[in-house]
Amino acid sequence: MLWQSGQRSNFKEFRRRRFYSPDAFFHAEVREPTKVVESLASATPVICNLTSDLADYIKDGYNGIIVNDESAKDFSLAVEKAVKLSVSEKELMSKNARITAENSFSYKLYKDEAIELMSDP
Predict the structure, then answer these.
(1) pLDDT digit of tens for each residue in the chain (121 aa)?
(2) Could you tell me which of 51, 15, 14, 19 has the C-alpha nearest to residue 36?
(3) Helix 87-104 vs helix 34-41: angle between axes, to the nearest 10 degrees?
(4) Residue 10 counted as domain residue
(5) What ranges in the chain are assigned the alpha helix state H?
(6) Listed residue (93, 113, 1, 7) closest to 47, CA to CA
(7) Residue 7 falls inside a structural domain
(8) Cα 23 from Cα 90, distance rounded (Å)
(9) Which helix (H) or strand (E) holds 47?
(10) What CATH number does residue 23 fall under?
(11) Residues 98/39, Cβ–Cβ less than 8 Å
């Protein structure tokens, strides 16, 4: 989305999309992938290697891009793949990232178990 001066009504949308909506989150951590959940919840596709249980959640081309190993070359190839995505492909991956978060990490999924855990025995 391009913004031109004189288009005040569109500036808010331009600012939201350009400054608050990254196209991807790069995750190169080899230990705990906690930021991946936050990225998915923010409708931000993830570029990552599959550490921990990420393979259960990140699907190549669906809600992220999988890096085959931890080499700089493979991360570079993943970035090239991301750059070549069309706007509609990026938007679909963003939508799928949010759906993944809602279906896998929403507090609503664990509400009953949490209530039971906190209840008197």
Answers:
(1) 333 334 445 545 544 554 455 666 665 555 667 788 888 998 989 888 888 889 999 999 999 999 988 888 998 999 899 989 998 999 999 999 999 999 999 888 888 888 888 886 6
(2) 51
(3) 110
(4) no
(5) 8-19, 34-41, 72-83, 87-104, 111-118
(6) 93
(7) no
(8) 7
(9) strand 46-49
(10) 3.40.50.2000
(11) no
User: Which residue, chain included where needed, has tokens 């931000």?
Assistant: 44
Q: How many residues does the chain have?
A: 121
**Residue 64 in 3-state DSSP?**
strand
In a domain, 1, yes or no: no
Other CB atoms within 10 A of residue 66 CB: 18
What Å distances lie between residue 55 and 17, 37, 106, 120, 121, CA to CA? 28, 13, 18, 37, 36
pTM summary value: 0.71
Which domain covers residue 71, as residue numbers?
Answer: 17-118
Question: Among all chains, which residue has been given the structure tokens 């999309």?
Answer: 17
Say how many domains are in the chain.
1
Residue 65 placed within a domain: yes
